[in-house]
Amino acid sequence: MKITSVRATWVHVPIPYERQHVSDFGRIASFDSVVVKVETDTGLVGWGEAKAGVGSAASAYGLAAIVNQDLAPLLVGQDPRDISRLWDVMYNTPREGYALDRGHVLPQLGRRGLSISAIAGVDIALWDLLGKSLGAPVWRLLGGRRAERMPAYASGGWADEARIGEQLLGYVDKGGFRAVKMRVGVMDGEPHRSAARVRAARKALGPTSS
Question: Which overall architecture, per CATH, does domain 3-141 show?
Answer without folding.
Answer: 2-Layer Sandwich (3.30)
